[in-house]
Specification:
The complex is a heterodimer. Chain A is 0% helix and 59% strand. By secondary structure, chain A is mostly beta strands. In chain A, strand 7 and strand 8 form a beta hairpin. Helix content of chain B is 0%, strand content 57%. By secondary structure, chain B is an all-beta fold. Chain B is globular. Classes of the chains: A mainly beta, B mainly beta.
Chain lengths: 112, 113
């Protein structure tokens, strides 16, 4: 069974203080690993897809990386508007509909 | 607006009521999903419709009944719910023939009293 574990559960940063979020996974035949951002009371918003070990994607202050066992979401010089819950999900290649299995998320709070 | 619209945004219902949640997408996607999100728990997959056919029912109690009349619309019919069913219910859609994630709606916040 696919498993996704995110750490830490919560992270508090000062504005400008860079850090990383971790997503460890176990999946049979990885089709893709996804990062989403979720603001309170809203649905998850897509950030990145990573398909193979060694791949990296960047968007503004965020950079996602992937190895065979885990993914990191690096946040460089965060701002208060980066505060949100960050979700990681894996998609296995064995199902016809591309089932996503999610981690429990990391709640990021950035203080001014 | 993500392209996936859920209504209502908030719903309060008694345990004996019957209500329905609605999801609509016009992204040309051919798979639709219902997820349940409870506090401090990962998103739980409830139902999957692929090409309008239900392909997964993830051990969901029968008081939740999905319906997918066409590739653009998805419903979740609710009856005799329990207080522990209070949660954020999220609808998502995707394209089966393309690698990629889901597009989510904003969710329905359900409170069962």
């Amino acid at each position: 069974e696919d498993q996704v574990t995110q750490s830490p559960e919560a992270l508090r940063l000062q504005e400008g203080e860079s850090s990383s979020l971790n997503c460890s996974y176990t999946v049979s035949g990885l089709r893709g690993l996804f990062w989403y951002r979720q603001d309170p009371g809203k649905g998850p918003e897509f950030l990145f897809t990573l398909y193979s070990a060694g791949e990296e994607k960047e968007k503004e202050r965020l950079k996602a990386t992937l190895t065979k066992k885990e993914s990191f979401l690096h946040i460089t010089a965060p701002k208060p508007e980066d505060s949100a819950t960050y979700l990681c999900a894996v998609q296995e290649g064995g199902t016809s509909y591309g089932k996503l299995t999610f981690g429990q998320g990391t709640i990021l709070t950035v203080h001014p | 607006e993500t392209g996936v619209t859920q209504t209502p945004r908030h719903l309060v219902m008694g345990m004996t009521n019957k209500k329905s949640l609605k999801c609509e997408q016009h992204l040309g996607h051919n798979a639709m999903y219902w997820y349940k999100q409870s506090a401090k728990k990962p998103l739980e997959l409830m139902f999957v419709y692929s090409l309008e056919e239900r392909v997964e029912n993830n051990s969901v109690p029968s008081r939740f009944s999905p319906e997918c009349p066409n590739s653009s619309h998805l419903f979740l019919h609710l009856h005799t719910l329990q207080p522990e069913d209070s949660a954020l219910y999220l609808c998502a859609s995707s394209r089966l023939d393309r690698a990629g994630g889901y597009t989510f709606g904003s969710g329905t916040r359900l409170t069962v009293v």
